[in-house]
Design brief:
With 405 residues, the chain is of the alpha+beta class. Among the domains are: 213 residues; 49 residues, no CATH class. It is 35% helix and 20% strand. The chain has 15 helices and 19 strands. It has an eight-stranded mixed beta sheet with strand order 8-7-9-10-14-17-6-18, with helices on both faces. A three-stranded antiparallel beta sheet has the order 11-12-13. A hairpin with a 7-residue loop joins strand 7 and strand 8. It starts with a helix and ends with a helix. Bound molecules: flavin-adenine dinucleotide (FAD).
């Protein structure tokens, strides 16, 4: 007979609600996470005999923490709310003051600058982040950052599966976490389940996230540029300029490059997992601080992906996040000026549309016979009312695609 934990995990995975965050690996020794045949991180549960009480407790904890099972919006009061970005305290345009960090980072090195400052100032003992695997550079792995050099080595977005939260130190005043919105959500829900007071919980930094592409997308793109992924000695998705280029180097010195627009728009962004298409929080309301690209826009309001000096949108989500950003500005770690988030929604079309049509997408999934995660507190009905036609279209499209898949 399968255990309760196997059934709980199986329900999330079978219904394509797993985001591959890796949070479940923290909850039970029976769970391990690895790349599936489709190129996404997925958990498996060992059939180890487990006393029923322990099995029940682990299954309950899993259902409380896993963002593919349940996601309840953070409840702490926040003075502002945005349709696209959710609740927040303050927002800025910002960049890392150190030009080397600004250039190395994805959009302006803010996360790398904050990471370095957190560890150097003793505000956090370390930071868990993601970086290219030393021995297999086309893969992405969680890393622990304790120095500026390590922070710089993990700068730049990696558009591939990695379960950063699987290394989360769920303890009061533990290592800070930089992760995708689903990862910081898993961390926050775990803190709550363990009763760690919010003010003592590890600091959570996050970024806007359109979704995690399959590892296969990276491998195919790399091969199309003349380097087999297994033969790569270095692989960067962007950074070293803004937005920077996808650059892969083979062991024979072959260098394959392509623009961000091409790598994301034609390859990586077309191979996302299902859970990301129904994400209610792609801009990181569960972080203390979340960061995104502050793209320049053309006349129609669409982002222009031309190389420039990096610029980020930085959002303080919590009071603690506000204090951190203000201290980082005062100490010259980042350079920032306040902005109104309403203007930013126009240059994040994916984030705006996904949230506005999410109710329709969820209905499409349910109509196609899929179980959906339990989302609460995201105002999806109110958002859907602002675009009924778009939601009907989204429901139909999602239904068709779900049935085809
Ligand atoms: C999958 C993905 C989708 C994204 N979608 C959007 C979007 O829709 N809109 C938008 O504006 N921005 C998006 N970004 C974020 C954007 O690319 C920048 O990461 C963000 O603006 C922060 O830039 P930065 O220069 O401050 O980060 P950096 O200083 O370059 O630091 C990046 C940090 O992110 C961590 N990291 C990198 N890749 C991953 C990963 N896959 N999982 C977990 N942690 C990781 C690293 O540890 C590092 O600490 C996305 C990033 C990723 C990885």
């Amino acid at each position: 007979m399968t255990s309760r934990l196997e059934r709980a995990v199986g329900t999330v995975v079978r219904n394509d609600n797993c985001s591959g965050c890796g949070g479940c690996a923290l909850l039970s020794d029976r769970i391990s996470v690895s790349l599936s045949g489709e190129g996404f991180l997925r958990p498996t549960v060992a059939a180890t005999p487990t006393p029923p009480q322990e099995d029940r407790a682990e299954a309950r904890l899993f259902n409380r923490v896993c963002p593919g099972s349940r996601l309840v919006a953070p409840a702490d009061p926040r003075p502002r709310d945005s349709r696209t970005f959710g609740p927040y305290v303050e927002a800025w345009e910002a960049w890392a003051t150190d030009p080397q960090v600004r250039n190395a980072g994805s959009s302006a090195g803010v996360l790398t600058a904050l990471t370095t400052w957190l560890v150097e100032s003793g505000r956090a003992p370390g930071v868990t982040g993601a970086a290219s695997d030393d021995t297999h550079p086309s893969r992405t792995v969680p890393v622990r950052i304790t120095t500026r050099a390590e922070a710089l080595a993990s700068s730049g977005s990696r558009y591939a599966p990695v379960g950063t939260v699987s290394r989360y130190s769920a303890q009061a005043r533990g290592d800070a976490l930089v992760g995708k919105p689903c990862e910081v959500s898993a961390a926050r829900q775990l803190n709550e389940a363990l009763g760690i007071p919010a003010e003592l919980a590890p600091i959570r930094l996050t970024f806007f996230c359109a979704g995690t592409p399959s590892q296969r997308a990276t491998d195919k793109l790399s091969a199309s540029l003349g380097v087999e992924a297994d033969d790569a000695i270095s692989l960067r998705y962007r950074g070293n300029g803004w937005p920077g280029e996808f650059t892969v180097v083979g062991s024979d010195g072959t260098v394959g490059r392509t623009s961000y627009d091409d790598s994301w728009g034609k390859h990586l962004g077309r191979d996302l997992q299902w859970r990301c298409k129904i994400c209610p929080d792609g801009t990181g309301a569960d972080g203390d601080v979340s960061v995104g690209d502050y793209w320049r826009a053309d006349e129609a309001g669409y982002p222009i992906f031309e190389d420039a000096e990096g610029s980020s949108v930085v959002i303080a989500r919590t009071r603690r996040g506000l204090a951190l950003v203000e201290a980082a500005i005062a100490e010259g770690v980042i350079t920032a000026s306040p902005i109104a988030l309403e203007g930013v929604a126009a240059i994040q079309p994916l984030q705006r549309e996904r949230r506005r049509t999410l109710l329709g997408r969820l209905l499409g999934r349910v109509s196609a016979g899929k179980k959906i995660p339990h989302f609460r507190g995201y105002g999806l009905v109110t958002l859907a009312r602002s675009d009924t036609t778009g939601n009907i279209r989204a429901a139909r499209g999602t239904f068709r695609r779900s049935r085809r898949a």
